[in-house]
Design brief:
The protein is an alpha/beta fold. It has a five-stranded parallel β-sheet with strand order 3-2-1-4-5, sandwiched between helices. It is built from six helices and five strands.
């Protein structure tokens, strides 16, 4: 069957930086599951179903055939175990991400020693892109097309037209 990696996150919304990491992961592993976290404690901006649909649309455009989209709640390590993966993918944009990601990785490793976290660094042109920044720009009607896939641009344009 080959190696399966899980790329977990909120992806609220997915950015070109996320997709850059995903593209790299898809070349390294036989199967990659981009796992959208449904976190009841953290109210997402976009509904989980919309985030999944936007990711699926972006994947079609990229033609990444070994990538699938799923959602989960609870601990990432339990989800990875459920899908038979012992590899987590985490993206790094800047040094500031590293400390948080290292803590998370070490916690996951303490809870599930067989789990390995693979850190992938985005291209420099995506280092400053975050979902929070995209939401802020979109909120004020700014152009987000440089930061997100076309599916997300259309989604936010539709939202802005309804307001």
């Amino acid at each position: 069957m080959g190696k399966t990696a899980v790329y977990p996150g909120s992806f609220d919304p997915i950015t070109k930086g996320h997709l850059d990491v995903l593209k790299k992961a898809s070349k390294m592993f036989d199967r990659v599951i981009i796992a959208v976290l449904k976190n009841d404690a953290k109210k997402g901006f976009l509904p989980t179903e919309d985030r999944i649909a936007l990711i699926e649309e972006a994947l079609k455009e990229m033609e990444l055939h070994n990538v699938e989209v799923d959602s989960f709640d609870g601990l990432t390590i339990e989800y990875a175990k459920h899908v038979g993966s012992d590899i987590l993918i985490r993206g790094l944009r800047a040094v500031s991400d590293f400390e948080y990601e290292m803590q998370l990785s070490q916690t996951n490793s303490a809870l599930a020693p067989s789990l390995t976290t693979v850190f992938l660094i985005t291209k420099p042109k995506y280092n400053f892109i975050s979902s929070s920044t995209v939401k802020e720009i979109a909120k004020y009607g700014g152009d987000i097309s440089k930061f997100v896939p076309e599916s997300v641009v259309k989604y936010f344009n539709k939202l802005n037209n309804q307001i």
